[in-house]
Specification:
alpha/beta; Rossmann fold; 6 helices; 13 strands
Length: about 240
């Protein structure tokens, strides 16, 4: 049985013969089956197998995340990266989270570090609604400013010590905007899904291309998780300018 517990909901990827036995798992009160994740807004297809409703509050790394598992996504495989980002921000930094979702990275950074400001941009109105709720739940209203819309248009220019690009898909198309958002000497955390043979080649090349004449210093390259056969979700930290 492959599944993940989000709040009090067990999310399955495949059918099981007797889902009611899964209620024996501590903390599990409801069971749903996850289908495809669709589109830029990352909307999941979900079938409720046991219980009522699909909204829950998930706790991770001393942070609270309210969400509806039928409307927004949550990746257990990104847990390590969320913890890493929670402790990487330096005191007084300005951060722009270009794909904030429900606050996957913004909330831990605000809770565990001491940034001056985090601009959290999200294009999906439903995810944005939960982002706003999670900012309130975690009492970080004085740090995190939620912004609804396309980060290429909304993200403030020339202000960021750190830009987080925690979405995989057509992420490289947003790199030029990220370079405009960054101050000289700022750091971009660029996520991409890449075939194994070029997993740390293509992302770096794309960052350098977007940076143009600005210097690029690669600080860290790491695999977050396997994405599909022969393809990995990776992140590259690079200092720009």
């Amino acid at each position: 049985m492959k599944g993940k517990v989000i709040g009090d909901i067990l999310v399955l990827k495949k059918d099981v013969e007797n889902p009611y036995r899964l209620l024996e798992i501590p903390g599990v009160n409801r069971v749903v089956k996850l289908g495809h994740i669709n589109g830029l807004k990352r909307e999941p297809e979900v079938e409720v197998l046991i219980g009522d409703g699909t909204e829950t509050i998930h706790k991770e790394n001393h942070c609270l995340f309210k969400m509806d598992v039928a409307k927004v996504m949550w990746s257990k495989g990104n847990t390590g990266e969320r913890k890493r980002m929670a402790n990487i921000v330096r005191d007084g930094e300005v951060v722009v989270d270009m794909f904030a979702g429900i606050g996957y990275f913004s909330i831990p950074m605000a809770v565990h570090s001491k940034p001056a400001k985090i601009y959290s941009v999200e294009i999906n109105p439903i995810a944005y609604g939960y982002l706003c709720e999670n900012i309130h739940l975690n009492k970080v209203e004085d740090i995190v400013e939620p912004m609804l819309g396309d980060c290429r248009e909304l993200a403030p220019r020339g202000v960021a010590d750190r830009v987080l690009m925690g979405y995989i898909g057509n992420t490289h198309e947003y790199l030029p905007a990220a370079m405009e958002v960054l101050k000289d000497g700022g750091v971009v955390h660029y996520h991409e899904s890449v075939p194994d043979k070029i997993k740390f080649i293509r992302p770096v090349e794309r960052i350098k291309e977007a940076a143009g004449e600005r210097d690029v210093e690669v600080l860290k390259k790491r695999i977050i998780k396997p994405y599909s056969p022969g393809v990995y979700h990776v992140v590259v930290d690079a200092k720009i300018g």
